[in-house]
Protein backbone atom coordinates (compact mmCIF):
# COMPACT_ATOMS: atom_id res chain seq x y z
CA UNK A 1 0.00 0.00 0.00
CA UNK A 2 2.95 2.30 0.53
CA UNK A 3 3.80 2.12 -3.19
CA UNK A 4 0.24 3.05 -4.15
CA UNK A 5 0.23 5.99 -1.75
CA UNK A 6 3.54 7.39 -2.93
CA UNK A 7 2.55 6.87 -6.56
CA UNK A 8 -0.46 9.06 -5.93
CA UNK A 9 1.79 11.68 -4.38
CA UNK A 10 4.16 11.67 -7.37
CA UNK A 11 1.43 11.78 -9.99
CA UNK A 12 -0.21 14.81 -8.46
CA UNK A 13 -3.11 15.75 -6.30
CA UNK A 14 -5.99 13.32 -6.48
CA UNK A 15 -7.81 14.51 -3.38
CA UNK A 16 -10.60 17.03 -3.72
CA UNK A 17 -9.34 20.60 -3.59
CA UNK A 18 -11.14 23.16 -1.48
CA UNK A 19 -13.06 25.58 -3.63
CA UNK A 20 -11.64 28.98 -2.79
CA UNK A 21 -14.79 30.64 -4.10
CA UNK A 22 -17.10 28.74 -1.75
CA UNK A 23 -18.21 30.42 1.43
CA UNK A 24 -16.35 29.09 4.45
CA UNK A 25 -15.54 30.59 7.79
CA UNK A 26 -12.05 32.08 8.10
CA UNK A 27 -11.73 30.55 11.55
CA UNK A 28 -9.91 27.24 11.79
CA UNK A 29 -10.07 24.78 14.64
CA UNK A 30 -6.97 22.72 15.46
CA UNK A 31 -7.19 19.08 16.54
CA UNK A 32 -4.02 17.25 17.62
CA UNK A 33 -3.80 13.45 17.75
CA UNK A 34 -1.00 11.76 19.70
CA UNK A 35 0.42 8.25 19.35
CA UNK A 36 3.49 6.54 20.87
CA UNK A 37 6.64 6.30 18.76
CA UNK A 38 8.90 3.29 18.43
CA UNK A 39 12.42 3.40 17.05
CA UNK A 40 15.59 1.45 16.42
CA UNK A 41 19.19 2.52 15.89
CA UNK A 42 22.03 0.94 13.98
CA UNK A 43 24.98 2.20 15.97
CA UNK A 44 28.51 2.73 14.71
CA UNK A 45 31.20 0.36 15.92
CA UNK A 46 34.80 1.19 16.81
CA UNK A 47 35.67 1.32 13.11
CA UNK A 48 32.82 3.77 12.37
CA UNK A 49 30.90 1.05 10.56
CA UNK A 50 27.24 0.36 11.27
CA UNK A 51 26.47 -2.60 13.49
CA UNK A 52 24.51 -5.43 11.86
CA UNK A 53 22.06 -5.66 14.75
CA UNK A 54 19.77 -2.83 15.75
CA UNK A 55 18.98 -1.60 19.23
CA UNK A 56 15.64 -0.31 20.48
CA UNK A 57 15.42 3.38 21.26
CA UNK A 58 12.83 4.27 23.88
CA UNK A 59 10.56 7.35 23.67
CA UNK A 60 12.47 9.11 26.45
CA UNK A 61 15.72 8.64 24.54
CA UNK A 62 14.11 9.89 21.32
CA UNK A 63 13.82 13.36 22.83
CA UNK A 64 17.52 13.83 22.10
CA UNK A 65 16.82 13.39 18.38
CA UNK A 66 13.73 15.58 18.06
CA UNK A 67 15.45 18.05 15.72
CA UNK A 68 16.73 15.34 13.37
CA UNK A 69 13.32 13.66 13.26
CA UNK A 70 11.56 16.95 12.49
CA UNK A 71 14.03 17.60 9.69
CA UNK A 72 13.25 14.21 8.15
CA UNK A 73 9.50 14.86 8.43
CA UNK A 74 10.03 18.13 6.55
CA UNK A 75 11.84 16.25 3.77
CA UNK A 76 8.78 14.05 3.28
CA UNK A 77 6.63 17.03 2.27
CA UNK A 78 5.95 17.43 -1.45
CA UNK A 79 5.59 20.87 -3.10
CA UNK A 80 2.21 19.85 -4.52
CA UNK A 81 0.84 19.39 -1.01
CA UNK A 82 1.40 23.04 -0.16
CA UNK A 83 0.01 24.13 3.18
CA UNK A 84 -2.52 21.29 3.27
CA UNK A 85 -0.13 18.40 3.77
CA UNK A 86 -1.75 14.97 3.77
CA UNK A 87 -5.23 16.49 3.59
CA UNK A 88 -4.91 16.62 -0.21
CA UNK A 89 -5.20 12.82 -0.27
CA UNK A 90 -8.40 12.62 1.76
CA UNK A 91 -11.05 10.54 0.02
CA UNK A 92 -13.69 10.71 2.73
CA UNK A 93 -16.53 12.94 1.48
CA UNK A 94 -17.60 14.12 4.94
CA UNK A 95 -14.06 15.32 5.68
CA UNK A 96 -12.78 16.58 2.32
CA UNK A 97 -14.49 19.93 2.48
CA UNK A 98 -14.20 20.46 6.23
CA UNK A 99 -10.51 19.69 6.80
CA UNK A 100 -7.96 22.21 5.58
CA UNK A 101 -4.69 20.51 6.52
CA UNK A 102 -3.23 17.38 8.11
CA UNK A 103 0.45 17.47 9.08
CA UNK A 104 2.56 14.90 10.95
CA UNK A 105 5.03 16.13 13.55
CA UNK A 106 6.51 15.11 16.91
CA UNK A 107 6.35 16.65 20.37
CA UNK A 108 7.92 16.07 23.76
CA UNK A 109 5.45 15.50 26.59
CA UNK A 110 6.30 14.26 30.07
CA UNK A 111 9.85 13.40 29.06
CA UNK A 112 8.93 11.29 26.04
CA UNK A 113 8.74 12.01 22.31
CA UNK A 114 5.33 11.41 20.74
CA UNK A 115 4.05 11.21 17.20
CA UNK A 116 1.49 13.93 16.48
CA UNK A 117 -0.96 14.70 13.69
CA UNK A 118 -2.07 18.33 13.57
CA UNK A 119 -5.43 18.76 11.86
CA UNK A 120 -6.77 22.17 10.87
CA UNK A 121 -10.48 22.24 10.05
CA UNK A 122 -13.17 24.76 9.25
CA UNK A 123 -15.13 24.77 12.52
CA UNK A 124 -14.76 22.07 15.15
CA UNK A 125 -15.02 18.43 14.16
CA UNK A 126 -17.80 16.33 15.63
CA UNK A 127 -17.02 13.19 17.62
CA UNK A 128 -17.95 11.08 14.60
CA UNK A 129 -15.64 13.13 12.39
CA UNK A 130 -12.80 12.85 14.91
CA UNK A 131 -13.18 9.06 14.90
CA UNK A 132 -13.08 9.11 11.08
CA UNK A 133 -9.87 11.17 11.20
CA UNK A 134 -8.35 8.71 13.69
CA UNK A 135 -9.18 5.77 11.44
CA UNK A 136 -7.75 7.55 8.39
CA UNK A 137 -4.56 8.56 10.20
CA UNK A 138 -3.97 5.08 11.63
CA UNK A 139 -4.17 3.76 8.08
CA UNK A 140 -1.64 6.35 6.96
CA UNK A 141 0.64 5.53 9.89
CA UNK A 142 0.61 1.80 9.16
CA UNK A 143 0.38 1.54 5.36
CA UNK A 144 0.86 4.98 3.83
CA UNK A 145 2.91 7.95 4.95
CA UNK A 146 4.13 6.21 8.10
CA UNK A 147 5.25 3.07 6.30
CA UNK A 148 7.46 5.15 4.04
CA UNK A 149 8.77 7.30 6.88
CA UNK A 150 9.88 4.35 9.00
CA UNK A 151 12.13 3.18 6.16
CA UNK A 152 14.02 6.48 5.96
CA UNK A 153 17.36 6.47 7.71
CA UNK A 154 17.85 9.48 9.96
CA UNK A 155 21.52 10.30 10.29
CA UNK A 156 22.63 10.92 13.86
CA UNK A 157 26.08 11.07 15.41
CA UNK A 158 25.71 7.56 16.87
CA UNK A 159 24.65 5.96 13.56
CA UNK A 160 21.30 5.62 11.77
CA UNK A 161 17.91 6.03 13.43
CA UNK A 162 14.61 4.61 12.14
CA UNK A 163 11.36 5.91 13.64
CA UNK A 164 7.89 4.36 13.40
CA UNK A 165 4.64 6.24 14.02
CA UNK A 166 2.73 2.93 14.20
CA UNK A 167 3.28 -0.55 15.56
CA UNK A 168 1.19 -3.70 15.75
CA UNK A 169 1.60 -4.18 19.49
CA UNK A 170 -1.04 -3.74 22.15
CA UNK A 171 0.72 -0.60 23.37
CA UNK A 172 -0.25 1.37 20.26
CA UNK A 173 -3.11 3.86 20.54
CA UNK A 174 -4.36 7.13 19.11
CA UNK A 175 -5.68 9.80 21.45
CA UNK A 176 -6.57 13.47 21.28
CA UNK A 177 -4.36 15.98 23.05
CA UNK A 178 -7.09 16.53 25.63
CA UNK A 179 -7.41 12.80 26.24
CA UNK A 180 -3.66 12.32 26.65
CA UNK A 181 -2.93 15.29 28.84
CA UNK A 182 -6.07 14.98 30.92
CA UNK A 183 -7.05 18.60 30.45
CA UNK A 184 -10.27 20.15 29.27
CA UNK A 185 -8.78 22.29 26.54
CA UNK A 186 -10.66 24.38 24.06
CA UNK A 187 -9.57 23.58 20.48
CA UNK A 188 -7.32 26.27 19.04
CA UNK A 189 -9.08 28.80 16.84
CA UNK A 190 -6.94 30.51 14.25
CA UNK A 191 -7.90 33.91 12.86
CA UNK A 192 -5.78 35.64 10.28
CA UNK A 193 -2.61 33.81 11.30
CA UNK A 194 -3.10 34.33 15.05
CA UNK A 195 -3.99 31.31 17.16
CA UNK A 196 -6.38 31.87 20.02
CA UNK A 197 -6.69 29.34 22.82
CA UNK A 198 -3.29 27.76 22.23
CA UNK A 199 -1.54 26.26 25.22
UniProtKB/TrEMBL annotation:
Span list, region Disordered: 1-21
Basic and acidic residues bias spans: 1-12
Protein name: DUF2262 domain-containing protein
Amino acid sequence: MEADFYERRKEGLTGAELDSSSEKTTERSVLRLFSPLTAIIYAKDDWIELEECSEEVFPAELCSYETEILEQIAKECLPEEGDRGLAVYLDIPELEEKIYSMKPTVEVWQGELWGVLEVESYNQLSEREIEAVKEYWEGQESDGWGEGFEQREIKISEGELYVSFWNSGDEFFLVTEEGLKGEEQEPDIQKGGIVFGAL
